[in-house]
Amino acid sequence: MAELGSVGVMSSEAEGRVYNIRVLEDRVLRLETVAHGLSDRYEQLRTEMRCEIHSLRNQMKSLEGKVDDSHRVVNGKLDRLIGGRAAITGIITLVTSVLGTGMVHVVLSLGGR
């Protein structure tokens, strides 16, 4: 159960990063729109905006990498959890089958007498 709690934490961290990426994307789009609308008189401002856009894109790439890492961790934990449950289910099915077959054999043996 401790793994499930950490999966929830990782998921909320990843969701927060995804939200931050969306906010940064919106900001980049707004800056690009404004930068394209500036006349030639504002070349310095346009250059500064391009630098800001470049910085925001780098932040987005960094956050995307962290989100991907978080997803890998979460998926690994889920794979182990699901694999463990599948193994337990298989064992229970095998034991039930063996016990069921044994009971049928005992009933048939007793009934044949």
Short description:
With 113 residues, this protein is mostly helical. It has two helices and no strands.
Helix/strand class: mainly alpha
Instruction: Provide the helix percentage.
Output: over 70%
Rg, Å, rounded? 29 Å
Q: Between the first and last Cα atoms, what is the distance in angstroms? A: 51 Å
Strand content: under 5%
Query: Could you tell me the mean pLDDT?
Result: 81
Please provide the count of β strands: 0
| Helix/strand order | HH
Write up this protein.
- The structure is a single chain.
- Helices cover 93% and strands 0% of the residues.
- It has 113 residues and is mainly alpha-helical.
- Helix 1 (2-37) packs antiparallel against helix 2 (43-111).
- The model is unreliable at 1-7 (pLDDT under 50).
Secondary-structure blueprint of this entry?
Blueprint: H1 2-37, H2 43-111
Helix pairs in contact: 1-2
